[in-house]
TrEMBL record:
InterPro entries: Calcineurin-like_PHP, Metallo-depent_PP-like. Pfam families: Metallophos. CDD domains: MPP_superfamily (cd00838). This is Metallophosphatase. Gene3D superfamilies: 3.60.21.10. It comes from Paenibacillus anseongense. Residues 2-209 form the Calcineurin-like phosphoesterase domain.
């Protein structure tokens, strides 16, 4: 099982080609690559997008993704919700699956907490329901579901995959001049979770860099990181 950062549709999909991700040749559909938001291949269903979804589906691995802020949420939410490995998903096709917000999945023996979404700070330059959707930020129901599921698992998971990061991590990024984004309701929500949650590693995207951070967190973008596939 692997995790990587934003795809932005087919803009950054090249990192998953067989030359750059050569281990693909040794994988099967029972192996997974998790995209940490801004998947962007459920956007307008035009020919080029359909081509790249088929390209991705032909890879030996299966693709899992959380949503970022640059998604067509109206289109994404037309897919039926089903249960998969303990959590709610949208199945885009047989090997591309959207992991919904506030869910805990048991995959390869590990518990993974997923929570997509983030605020677009360029939304004043975007058009609502054309290239920006209000659903990029979570609803109260989604926030509550995340807490409920964490309580159900006694606040213990193995991995966390989000698009945004906790507020304290945002401060670290701002101090290192890797971000100029201010805290918001979602980062504060993650801060509260971070204070209570036991986890081995927390991955997040959104900021288009690869960087190890305090509190067992990693900002991930270009790199593709292997996760353990068996319980120790």
């Amino acid at each position: 099982m692997y995790v990587t950062g934003d795809l932005h549709g087919y803009i950054d999909i090249g990192k998953l080609n067989s030359k750059r991700f050569s281990i693909n040749r040794e994988l099967s559909k029972d192996d997974f690559v998790i995209i940490a938001g801004d998947f962007g291949l459920v956007w307008d269903n035009k020919n080029d997008e359909i081509y790249w979804r088929k390209w991705l589906a032909r890879k030996n691995f299966s693709t899992l993704f959380i949503d970022g802020n640059h998604e067509n949420f109206q289109l994404l939410n037309t897919y039926p919700v089903e249960c998969w490995n303990g959590g709610k998903v949208h199945r885009i096709n047989e090997s591309i699956i959207h992991l919904m917000r506030g869910q805990i999945f048991t995959i390869k023996g590990y518990k993974i907490f997923t929570f997509g979404g983030a605020q677009s700070h360029d939304k004043e330059y975007r058009k609502e329901n054309v290239n920006w959707w209000p659903e990029e930020m979570p609803s109260l129901e989604e926030y509550n579901e995340g807490i409920k599921n964490l309580e159900r698992h006694n606040w213990e998971v193995d991995f966390v995959v989000t698009h945004m990061c906790p507020t304290s991590t945002l401060h670290t990024l701002n101090e290192s001049k890797h971000s100029g984004i201010h805290k918001d309701q979602l980062s504060d929500y993650f801060e509260q979770i971070q204070e209570r949650l036991s986890y081995k590693k927390w991955y997040f995207g959104h900021f288009h860099r690869d960087m190890e951070l305090p509190n067992k967190q990693k900002l991930i973008y270009k790199s593709i990181e292997l996760l353990p596939t068996e319980q120790s």
